[in-house]
Design brief:
21 strands; alpha/beta; Rossmann fold; 12 helices
Length: 434
């Protein structure tokens, strides 16, 4: 296996060795930010912090956290290298209406490749694997690029089929015989449904495992949630849950024992904080806060992801000693996870408010029968416009990369929803996920 070098041995090192390695990397990061980051230079100056004086984790924890608002409002100030060193640009999924741009150097792409190759290795994949990639590599997505680079670094084969088109997916499986598929879990159900309708013997296909992205497939206790159960009941393949984000440029992937996503400590330093930014122990859920290690272009310091989960530090049955993340159980500030995209309600408001013809609207989030989030947008218009629903959907796809269900209603019908009794102001967002 190409990636099996000394760096990966840290996965099986003692907690003390891991912490010592991370502390040294944190010191290097702080020195870099003090010299090259306009945003963090301001943070250090305003808070009277001497980054070179930070020599332990306790002092490090006194640095203010970085938020998604910071990235949104001061995106360019996070850049730490000259523009000519940037090789690739990616964007997040659109928090607060506009996606945040992340700029990657050549070394950042190498780091991204290492991350995914190591993640694949955690699932038991090696150079003999052939991955079928069902996620896009265009539209400034990081995920598809990361998977391609990771498979290449692993020495494995990869078939870039892209999203959708079940017929093409199964034709590829029949002709090339990939052994693993990288997909959003709900799409696996569509592949199953298509195979059954066409008489394809999918249970005996070449696919033996699925790397699941963007949607949860496990409950908090690591049992299958409704989506995971429906897949595994129908298709006898191994499912591997993952957790990742553009901001941290790293993934947490579970091993065959399915007891949480393994961290890669040489790439990310993690903290788990409560609503008061105080650390929580393993008995309580906390917000995932990450510091990116080894990033050149736009490194992040104590970045609050908004995701809430439990964490685990006991040695895994696979032998790894790295911290593991449990399934994400909640979101700060009504964060929505929809088909691999992270969104906040204001992002919807910004798009809908852009249309002069929209009189009023209400947004509802609910959980469907397979346990994933669905989005319904109720719209009242001033005038009837042909194909207006397609126009709205096109804006959602372009800005947020999501396709909510849109229904048109009268102004009175929508007003009854947005102006409930006992409310002193209009309500446009309703979270019905229980």
């Amino acid at each position: 296996m190409i990636i099996k070098n000394n760096a990966l041995n840290i996965e099986f090192s003692s907690p003390e060795q891991i912490r010592a390695m991370q502390l040294e990397k944190l010191k290097e990061l702080l020195s870099n930010l003090a010299q090259n980051s306009p945003f963090y230079q301001d943070v250090f100056r305003k808070n009277g912090i001497n980054p070179n004086a930070i020599q332990d984790f306790e002092t490090f924890a006194q640095i203010p956290t970085t938020t998604k608002d910071d990235l949104h409002h001061r995106n360019d100030d996070f850049l730490c290298v000259p523009r000519h060193q940037i090789i690739d640009y990616v964007t997040t999924s659109g928090t607060l209406g506009d996606p945040v741009i992340f700029a990657l150097t050549d070394n950042d792409l190498e780091r991204l490749a290492f991350n995914e190759a190591a993640s694949f290795a955690i699932t038991g994949s090696d150079e003999n694997e052939i991955f079928q990639l069902t996620t896009t590599m265009d539209r400034r997505f990081m995920a598809g690029l990361a998977y391609f680079l990771g498979a290449r670094k692993l020495g494995a084969g990869i078939v870039r089929v892209g999203s959708g088109i079940p017929e093409l997916q199964w034709d590829t499986i029949a002709k090339i015989k990939p052994t693993a598929i990288i997909a959003v879990p709900s799409f696996l159900l569509k592949l199953i449904e298509y195979a059954e309708s066409k008489g394809i013997d999918y249970k005996n296909s070449s696919i033996k495992k699925a790397i699941c992205i963007g949607e949860p497939i496990r409950n908090i206790d690591f049992s299958w949630n409704p989506l995971g159960k429906r897949i595994t009941d129908a298709w006898p393949i191994d499912l591997f849950s993952t957790y990742a984000s553009t901001e941290m440029g790293a993934a947490f992937t579970e091993c065959i024992h399915g007891q949480g996503g393994h961290s890669q400590p040489e790439l990310v330093f993690m903290e788990f904080l409560d609503e008061n930014n105080q650390p929580v122990n393993e008995t309580k859920p906390g917000e995932v806060v990450v510091t990116t290690l080894g990033v050149e272009g736009m490194p992040l310091l104590r970045f609050k992801t908004g995701d809430i989960c439990y964490h685990y530090t006991e040695k895994c049955l696979c032998g790894r000693t790295t911290t593991r993340l449990g399934p994400i159980i909640g979101r700060r500030q009504q964060m929505i996870k929809y088909k691999g995209t992270t969104i906040y309600p204001p992002a919807f408001f910004d798009i809908l408010n852009d249309f002069d013809n929209i009189l009023n609207y209400a947004i509802e989030i609910f959980t469907n029968e397979i346990g994933t989030d669905e989005i319904l947008v109720r719209v009242a218009c001033h005038n009837e416009i042909e194909h207006f629903d397609k126009t709205i959907l096109d804006h959602f796809r372009a800005k947020l990369r999501v396709s909510p269900k849109i229904i048109f209603q009268s102004g009175d019908e929508v007003a009854k929803i947005t102006n409930p009794e006992m409310s002193r102001k209009p309500i446009k967002f309703f979270d019905n996920r229980g």
